[in-house]
Design goal:
single chain, alpha/beta, Chitobiase, domain 2, six-stranded mixed beta sheet, 18 helices, 31 strands, 20% strand, globular
Length: 780
C-alpha cells in the first residue's frame, strides 16, 4: 500500500533532495518522468553495493516512473551519475568514504555528496556494516519515502515527476553501535515476517547485531560443555540445594571452572581471528551455586525486586577472573555478560572491572511507564543510579529492554514520552546501543519501533517532529486529530500514578479514565470525518479498530467489576473479533496471542478464561451465585502489625476505616507517596454480606477474585477460617465456607493481607470482586 505524501520540511528531519528543474539543482536524476542519470557501481562492486543500486533503481522507478540504468564504472556513461558504493570513480573525486573495522565497532557511517554532475552514495561495508545501503535509504527518505511499519501497509512513497539533488556534502555516523529490535515469541511470526522486519530495520538504519557473540540466557554452558567435562570435572558445575551438581551453571568459586572457561574462550578466539566477542550468561531466572564456598561469598544484598539475593558479587568475581586471564592473550576482544535478574546491581567487592568486560544491562524490574530518573517514580530513579554506575565502571554497556514493557492483553503501550527523554540520556552516558525484545504486534506498539529506530541513529531528533511527519504522511487531512490522539494516550500514561513492569496486570481504568476516553472518542471521530484519500481512510480505519479494541477491554473490566461476568466474556469475544477484522488488512497489526502462551497471565485469552470461570460458578455449569460481595469495602493499613491484638476483624471503630475499591490493588488508589513508593506491610479489608436461609447445610465457596499478597488471613464472624503463607498474585483464591456462615442474617468478613517490601511487583490487596457461590453437585 503506497500513498502520495508531501515533501514538507520537518524539524528534526533532513530532507536532502529538492524537486525542481535542472537549473535549480546540481544533479538531476529524473525530469518529466524520464531518466536523466545513470546508477554506477564499481567494476569490483560488493554484493551490498549491487543490492543498494538495485534498491535505488527500484524505488526511483516506483516514485517517478523513470527507470535509471545501472552500469559498471568502466562502461561509458553520459550525463549525471549516481555512484553507489566504493569504486575507483569515487576515489577519483577525492571523497573519503567511511571504512574499517575494529573491536570498538565505531567505524560505521556513510557519505552523501555531490561533486559536479555526480552524486555519491557510499558507506562502510567492512565486516557486517551496511553503510552503502543506509546511504541509499537516506537519499530516498529525503525524497519523501517512509517505512513506518514493515511491509506494504507501512510504506509511504511520494509521486514525483522530477527529482533533482542540490549541492550536498554530508557524512553520517550513528549515535549508537547496536540498534536492534527483534521478535520474541509472545506474538505470532508468520512466514516471511522476519525478512520484512530485517528490511524495515535496514530502511530505518537499524541493525540486527549479526556477527557478534551475545550473552543469551544459559550461554554459560558454552564455557564448559557438559558433554566434554561433566563426567571428568563434576566439581566445576554449580551445586543444587540438594547437593547435586547441575549441568546448566558453573561453580563460581572453583579455580578449575575459571581456568577451563578462560581456555575455552581463548581457544575460540584462536580459531576465529575475526571474532570480536564471546558472550556468556547464566540461565534465565535466579541461578545460584549452593556449595559452601559460593554461599559464603555472597554478601546477602536484598531488596527492590532486583533478584534476591543478589548474585552480582559472586558472578562478576568469576567473570573478572576469566576476563583477566583472557586479556593477557587477547586484549582487543570483548567478554560480554548480562546484568539481568539477580545480577542487575554492580558488584561491591571486585574493585575496578577488567577493561575487556562488556555488560548487557537488562533491568526488567523497573517501571516502563516513566522516563529514566523521573522524580515521580522511584523505580526509574533507581534505574538511573544503577545504570550511571555501570557506565562509569565500564566502557562497553548496552541495553536489553522490552517493548511492549507491560502485560500481554493487547492494549497500546505508549512509550514516546520515555523515548524522547531517555535516548539523549543514553547517548550522553556513552552506551553502545540496544537489543530490544519486541513483538510482531505493530499497533500495540504503534510508533515506538519507528521512533526507536530513528533515535538509535540520531538521538537528538525531535520526537514531536517525527510524530507530526508520520501523521501528515500516513493520515493526510486527518493528521491533526490523529497527532492529538497519539499525545493524549502518551500523556495519560505519563501522568498516571501507575507503575508497570513487563508481564504485569495494568489497571487501565486508572489510566484511561472517562475523561481521557471521551477526548480520544472525539479525536477519533474527527479523524474519521477528515480522511481524504483511500490510503488515509484505510489507515484511520486500522487506528479505529485499535481504539474499539481498547474500549472493549475497558468495558470488559467494567463488566467484571460490576459482577457481570458473562458480559465480560462477551467483550473479550468482541476484542477477538476485532483482531480478526484487522488481520484481513495485516495480521501483524493487532494479532491473536500464539497458542503456546494463551494461558499466560495477562493475555486476553487468560482474562477471558478467568471471567468465563466466574460465569460458570455464578449461574453456569459449576454453580449458582449466592451473594456478590460489595465492590466497596472498608480498609485500614496496619504498619505496626497490631491489628490482630486489637481484633480489627470485629465490627467497630468505623471512623478508623476508609472505603476502598476491591477491584484494584491499593497502590493504584493512592496508597503511595509522590515518588511512587507504595505502602507495603499488613492491611485489612472488611465487609458484611447476607446469606439466604435456604443455603443452610449446602456447600458454599467464597472466591476472592484476586489477591496480591505474601500472607493471607480470613476471619468470618470473628473466627479465623483461612490462612496461607503462599504468594498470591493474579489468580482467584477459593475458600470453603460450608457450615460456617449464618444463614438468614448478616455475616462479617475480614481479610488481612501481608505484602513484602516494594519491588518489581509493588502492589497489594484485593483486585477483583469477591463472591459467594454454591457448587453444583456432580450430574446436576
Amino acid at each position: 500500500m503506497t500513498s502520495t505524501a508531501s515533501c514538507l520540511a520537518v524539524a528534526g528531519l533532513v530532507l536532502v533532495l529538492s524537486i525542481g528543474s535542472r537549473a535549480e539543482a546540481d544533479v538531476l536524476l529524473v525530469e518529466g518522468g524520464k531518466p536523466r542519470a545513470t546508477i554506477v557501481v564499481g567494476d569490483e562492486a560488493t554484493d551490498q553495493a549491487r543490492e543498494a543500486a538495485s534498491a535505488l533503481q527500484t524505488y526511483i522507478e516506483r516514485i517517478s516512473g523513470a527507470h535509471l540504468p545501472v552500469q559498471s564504472e568502466s562502461e561509458a556513461v553520459e550525463g549525471n551519475r549516481v555512484l553507489v558504493g566504493h569504486s575507483h570513480a569515487v576515489d577519483a573525486l577525492g571523497i573519503t568514504v567511511p571504512s574499517g573495522f575494529t573491536h570498538q565497532l565505531n567505524e560505521e557511517g556513510y557519505v552523501v555528496k555531490t561533486v559536479g554532475d555526480a552524486l555519491v552514495l557510499a558507506g562502510n561495508e567492512d565486516w557486517h556494516y551496511r553503510g552503502t545501503m543506509y546511504a541509499v535509504y537516506d537519499l530516498l527518505e529525503g525524497l519523501g519515502c517512509r517505512w513506518f511499519f514493515p511491509g506494504d501497509y507501512g510504506e509511504v512513497l511520494p509521486k514525483l515527476d522530477t527529482v533533482a539533488v542540490d549541492d550536498m556534502d554530508r557524512v553520517e555516523r550513528p549515535d549508537f553501535r547496536f540498534r536492534n529490535i527483534w521478535y520474541s515469541g509472545w506474538m505470532p511470526v508468520r512466514e516471511g515476517e522476519q525478512q520484512l522486519l530485517r528490511d524495515w530495520l535496514e530502511r530505518n538504519r537499524a541493525s540486527s547485531l549479526s556477527g557478534l557473540s551475545l550473552p543469551g540466557d544459559g550461554s554459560v554452558k558454552r564455557l564448559a560443555p557438559a558433554d566434554k567435562y561433566f563426567e571428568t570435572h563434576p566439581h566445576i558445575y554449580a551445586m543444587s540445594p540438594e547437593g547435586e551438581r547441575v549441568k546448566d551453571m558453573l561453580c563460581m568459586t572453583e579455580p578449575d571452572a575459571v581456568r577451563i572457561a578462560a581456555e575455552t574462550i581463548k581457544e575460540a578466539f584462536r580459531n576465529d581471528p575475526n571474532a570480536i566477542s564471546f558472550g556468556f550468561a547464566p540461565p534465565d531466572g535466579h541461578p545460584l551455586c549452593h556449595c559452601e564456598r559460593c554461599m559464603a561469598a555472597m554478601p546477602g544484598f536484598m531488596g527492590k525486586g532486583l533478584g534476591d539475593p543478589s548474585l552480582s558479587d559472586l558472578w562478576f568475581s568469576f567473570v573478572q577472573k576469566v576476563a583477566q586471564e583472557v586479556y593477557k592473550e587477547f586484549p582487543d576482544r570483548w567478554l560480554w555478560t548480562n546484568g539481568y535478574a539477580n545480577r542487575v546491581r554492580l558488584p561491591e567487592s571486585t574493585g575496578p572491572l577488567s577493561p575487556n568486560i562488556g555488560i548487557q544491562s537488562a533491568m526488567i524490574s523497573a517501571c516502563t511507564f516513566h522516563r529514566v530518573g523521573d522524580e515521580r517514580c522511584w523505580q526509574r530513579q533507581l534505574y538511573k543510579q544503577i545504570f550511571d554506575r555501570w557506565t562509569d565502571a565500564l566502557d562497553c554497556v548496552f541495553i536489553y529492554d522490552y517493548d511492549p514493557g507491560k502485560g500481554l492483553e493487547g492494549l497500546p503501550f505508549p512509550a514516546l514520552h520515555c523515548l524522547k527523554h531517555d535516548m539523549p540520556y543514553f547517548k550522553e552516558r556513552g552506551i553502545w546501543g540496544f537489543w530490544t525484545e519486541g513483538n510482531n504486534s505493530w499497533m500495540f506498539t504503534h510508533l515506538n519501533y519507528y521512533v526507536r529506530a530513528r533515535l538509535m541513529w540520531d538521538a537528538d531528533q525531535s520526537v514531536d517532529a517525527l510524530v507530526r511527519d508520520y501523521c501528515e504522511r500516513f493520515y493526510g487531512a486527518a493528521a491533526r486529530p490523529v497527532e492529538r490522539y497519539i499525545w493524549t494516550l502518551e500523556n495519560a500514561v505519563d501522568d498516571a500514578g501507575v507503575h508497570e513492569t513487563w508481564g504485569r496486570l495494568t489497571p487501565w481504568k486508572h489510566i484511561l479514565t472517562d475523561k481521557v476516553v471521551d477526548k480520544l472518542d472525539d479525536l477519533m471521530a474527527k479523524a474519521q470525518r477528515k480522511t481524504d484519500s483511500p490510503d488515509a481512510k484505510l489507515h484511520v480505519k486500522v487506528l479505529g479498530y485499535v481504539h474499539k479494541h481498547m474500549k472493549a477491554f475497558l468495558a470488559l473490566q467494567e463488566a467484571a467489576d460490576e459482577g457481570d461476568f458473562t458480559g465480560a466474556v462477551g467483550w473479550a469475544d468482541l476484542m477477538l473479533a476485532i483482531r480478526d477484522e484487522t488481520a484481513k488488512i495485516d495480521p501483524a497489526l493487532l494479532p491473536h496471542t500464539p497458542e503456546w502462551c494463551r494461558t499466560s497471565k495477562t493475555t486476553l485469552e487468560w482474562h477471558r478464561a478467568i471471567y468465563e470461570g466466574f460465569a460458570a460458578r455464578t449461574g453456569g455449569t459449576e454453580g449458582e451465585l449466592v451473594a456478590l460481595l460489595p465492590k466497596m469495602w472498608e480498609f485500614r493499613t496496619d504498619p505496626e502489625d497490631i491489628g490482630t491484638f486489637y481484633q480489627w476483624y470485629l465490627p467497630g471503630d468505623e471512623d478508623q476505616w476508609k472505603p476502598i475499591d476491591t477491584t484494584t490493588y491499593w497502590q493504584a488508589q493512592g496508597y503511595q507517596d509522590s515518588r511512587g513508593w507504595g505502602y507495603a506491610g499488613k492491611a485489612w479489608y472488611r465487609t458484611s454480606f447476607a446469606v439466604p436461609e435456604d443455603t443452610a447445610n449446602k456447600p458454599l465457596t467464597l472466591t476472592l477474585g484476586g489477591v496480591y499478597s505474601s500472607g493471607l488471613w480470613v476471619w468470618l464472624n470473628g473466627v479465623l477460617i483461612h490462612h496461607s503463607d503462599a504468594h498470591h498474585s493474579r489468580n482467584p483464591v477459593d475458600i470453603d465456607l460450608t457450615g460456617k456462615v449464618r444463614c438468614g442474617e448478616d455475616n462479617h468478613l475480614a481479610i488481612l493481607v501481608g505484602t513484602e517490601s516494594p519491588g518489581r511487583n509493588e502492589r497489594g490487596g484485593l483486585h477483583r470482586r469477591a463472591l459467594l457461590w454454591q457448587p453444583r453437585e456432580k450430574g446436576e
